[in-house]
Sequence to fold (362 residues):
Amino acid sequence: MLYLSNADVESVLDMPTTLDALRAGYADLARGDASYIPRIDIYAPTGRDEDYYRWGSMTGVCRSMGVVAIRIKSDVVSWPDGTTEEKYCIEPGTYSGIILVYSIANGEPLALLNDGYLQHMRVGATAGIGVDALARPDAQVLGMIGSGGMARTYLQAIAQVRPLKSVKVYSPNREHRYAYAAEMGDQLGLDITPVDSAEEAVRGSDIVSTATDAIVSTFKFDWVEHGAHVTCVTRRELSPDMVERADLVAQLGIASIPPETPVPGMDWPSSSIAAYVVGQPEERSRIPWGHYSELRQFTNLVDIDTGKATGRTSADQISLFINTGTQGLQFAAVAGRVVQLARERGLGQPMPTEWFLQDIRD
Fold:
């Protein structure tokens, strides 16, 4: 069994490889050779007044990669100003996200990966797949809201599938947006302009991307041009009228157990991710209940790709791609490809497979 660090993963996983792996995974899904278990969380009080503990898991199987993968994450979360979500593991600046990969041929544990780099790459790549399927072929101007890791991989992926000529980036932190413009402009050879407002980023853009940690909407529908394509990281970043007024709305699939499903003990505390919540009423009140941004389900992108559903039909339509759902499958497809490439190149730290086996029947 291999341990693969973020550095190991980065050395074999670029954006074209990520896109190829995900396309293979979604081709499997379309023909019944892939599946996934939606994300489910557990919340528990930390004993402090300002935060909560959250555990998350999501699982998927990808036959073409020959693997099943589970991604698990352990966070202390807080919502300090009611508009963003902060998180850490042990202390601010450190995080714990792990991907476990197993063979579907014999059940062998194959690898344990840090999830940070792969997580950003797979989310960016799925946004790119959405752009490729729904944006106008001649889309050339991108308006980016956000300047963090996801904003970087979103731009990398979109630049792979559309001939971008210019990018406008807005982040509330002036220093961050200028750093993003300089770094990503050099990396991709693009003209990237930092702008002073979300409205300036959105107006006049053929593609609008919001890639932030916001739990409230980051822009207004009225700023979006006719014919534009919009993508996001979570539906929390979208105003209700963006979802209601877009001409075409598509999503990757089910992100979690749908709200109001009658599962004993299950709640939907934040962003409509299904969870089991431990704690007394005064503790539970710290969680931002009521952000039910994902009550509705929309056209599945796989159905559009296979012709079962209709995609963009005119250049004037505003299309919206909700980049959530099928997370477990994404981890199986991309992590499965990473493990293959890492073995070919002799990367990673081997661990005795026997450590992960036993002679007591489970």
